[in-house]
Amino acid sequence: MAVVVPKPTDDDYLVHHQFEDADQQSDTYIIGMWTFLATEVMFFGALFFTYTLYRWTYPMDFYLAHGALNVVMGTTNTVVLLVSSFTMACAVHFAQVRNRKLVIASLGMTVALAFVFLVIKFFEYKEKFAHHLYPGATFQIDPEHFHHGAPNPNHAQLYFGLYFGMTGLHAVHVIIGIIAISVLARMWQKQSRFVTHDYIPTELVGMYWHFVDLVWIFLFPMMYLIPHPH
Amino acid sequence: MAKTPLSHSGHVVSIWTYALTLIVLLVLMFTTVAVSFVDMPNFLGLSGNFWNNAIAIAIASMKAIFVILIFMGVKWSSNTARLWMLAGFTWFTLMYVIMLDYGTRKWEQPMTSHDVGAGITDPWGGGPETALPREIQQGSPNLPDSSYENVRPRQ
C-alpha cells in the first residue's frame, strides 16, 4: 500500500519515522558524529602516544630539534584556527535562526581562515625542506637553523618524522574540512532544503571542524613550545 | 527569510557566548606561549621541567574543555552525547596507561654474563651495521648512543 508523504512546506520539519520527535532525531545525528570523532581520537591518539614516548626517551634532542620551528608562525596558525572555530560556531547559530546570508558569510570566513592556515603551513614546510629537515636520505643538521643547539641527527629525525606525520595528517584533515564546509556553503547558497530546513548538517560539519581545531590546540604546545629539560 | 529559531532548532547559543569563549581561548593560548619561555623552578620535589609540561597540558586541557563544551555544544547536549564524547577521551587516557610498560622497562633483568658469553652485545642483534643508515656509520660525529634503556635485550 502506498504511503502518502505530505509535501513539505516552509516550516515543515521532517522527523523520520524511527524517531519519536525532532530532539531525538537531532540527538541521534550528533551521537553519530561523536562516534566518528571517537575514531579520529584514536587516529591521532596513536601518533600523540608515539610522540610522547620518544620525547620522553630523548628529551634533550627533542628540545634541541624543536629549535628549528618558527614559534611566531605556529602561534599565528593557532590564532587563525581558533578564530575559524568561532566563525564556524557562528555559522551554526545562523543556521539555527535560519539567516541564510550570514550562514554563507560565516562559512566563507571559516574557509578563508582555513586557507590562511594552509598557506602558513606551506611556508613552514618549504623552510624545513630547504634546510634538509625532512627525514630520510637527505636529512642533515645545520646548526645555524637550531636556536638552542644541534640535536643528535638520529633522534632529530624521529622528531621531524613525527612533526611531518602529525602536522601533515592534521593538514589533510583541514583540507577535508575545507571541502566539507565549501560543499555545505554551496548547498546553503542554492537554498537546498537539506540544509535550510535542518540545522543538523551544519552542526555536524561544525563539530568536525572544532575537532580539527582541538587537535591543533594540543599539537601546537607539544611541538612548538617544548620546555628545556632539566 | 525567517530569522527566528524554530522549535526543532535545538538549543541556540548566542554569538556573544561564542565570542567570549574565543576571547578566553586566545588568552589561554597567549598564556601558554608566555609560560613556555619561563623555566619553572623545582617545586614539591618535582623538576621545573615537569611543571612546565604540567602547566602546558593543563592549559591545553582547559582550552579543549571550552571548545568541547561550548563550540561543540556538549554543555547543552543530551547525556548520551556526553557519554559518547567521554568514551573517546577515556580511550585516549587508557592508551597512555601503556606508558607504565615503558616506564618499568628498566626494572627488567639486565643482560647477564650468559648473554655476553653467547656473543650477544647488541640487543637488536646483527650488530650496528644493520641498525643504522650507512651515512651515519661513515664518520659522523653524532653517533647515536648505545644505551638501550627502554628495550629488552633479545634472547
Describe what you observe in this structure.
- The complex is a heterodimer of chains A (230) and B (155).
- By secondary structure, chain A is an all-alpha fold.
- Chain A has seven helices and no strands.
- Chain A is elongated.
- The mean pLDDT of chain A is 93.
- With 155 residues, chain B is an all-alpha fold.
- In chain B, 53% of the residues lie in helices and 0% in strands.
- Chain B contains seven helices and no strands.
- Chain B has helices at residues 15-36, 48-71, 79-96, 99-103, 113-117, 128-131, 134-137.
- The relative contact order of chain B is 0.07.
- The chains are: A mainly alpha (230), B mainly alpha (155).
- The interface between A and B is large, with 70 and 68 residues.
**SS strand fraction of chain B:** under 5%
Largest interface (CB within 8 Å) is between: A-B, 70 and 68 residues
Q: For the residues shown, what is the average pLDDT of chain B?
A: 79
What structural class do the secondary elements of chain A suggest?
mainly alpha
Largest β sheet strand count, sense and barrel closure of chain A = none
SSE order of chain A, as H and E? Answer: HHHHHHH
Helix content of chain B: 40-55%
The residue ranges of chain A in which pLDDT falls below 50 over 5 or more consecutive positions are none
- Uncertain parts of chain B: 124-137
Compact summary:
Chain A is mainly α. Chain A is built from seven helices and no strands. In chain A, 72% of the residues lie in helices and 0% in strands.
Strand and helix layout:
The complex is a heterodimer of chains A (230) and B (155).
Chain A lengths: L21 H36 L1 H7 L5 H26 L3 H31 L22 H37 L3 H4 L3 H25 L6
Helix pairs in contact in A: 1-2, 1-5, 1-7, 2-5, 3-4, 3-7, 4-5, 5-7
Chain B lengths: L14 H22 L11 H24 L7 H18 L2 H5 L9 H5 L10 H4 L2 H4 L18
